[in-house]
Amino acid sequence: MAKPILYGADYSVYVRIARLALEEKGVDYELLPLDIFAPEGIPAWYLELHPFGRIPAFEHDGFRLFETGAITRYVDEAFDGPALQSADAHGRARMNQIIGTLDAYGYRAMVWDVAVERLEKMPPDEALIAGGLRRAETVLKVLTSLKARGPWLLGEQLTLADLHAAPIIAYFLKVEEGRDLLARFAEMRDWYARIAERLTFMNTEKVA
Prior knowledge:
This protein has helices spanning 13-25, 68-78, 89-120, 126-146, 160-172, 176-182, 186-196, 199-203, and strands at 5-8, 30-33, 57-60, 63-66. It is an alpha+beta fold. Strands 2-1-3-4 form a 4-stranded mixed β-sheet, with helices on one face.
């Protein structure tokens, strides 16, 4: 069976989410670098894999996917290794709720409105950052309310919800405002400290 190929850049939050799923399952895969922000633009061949020109895209034995959620669920179900989704309907629903919340409300606020704006814009838009921090605070409140008792977001089992949340929050923590805000949410702070110590998380960290 051919080695799966993941197309994308190591700076990408969503590429890292997909890589975490592959790493946690113990899958031998190839990361094919693709920078969608390169000056020459997106290669025409890549639009056959992802017609919207985003990352990541995925290929396994001729089967192609885009959208991170589809990729991570496929990885969990197609390969041996520890299950990354709950066996019961309630757990899967909660996992999907957390992932949907992060996609709809967390990613833009934490990554782009706060971290990227603070790190890469000169001068940064302080109003945009302030709004992003307000939304990020709501997201952290929601995650705290949804988190089950135990080490991971759904309790004793590490799931795709954890793998989805961790890279988004990791990017948020690149800036002081993100670190200060997370420190106010003890459960989420401790959860992040646990997942940050995992070898899979360290293996997927972009090397500057």
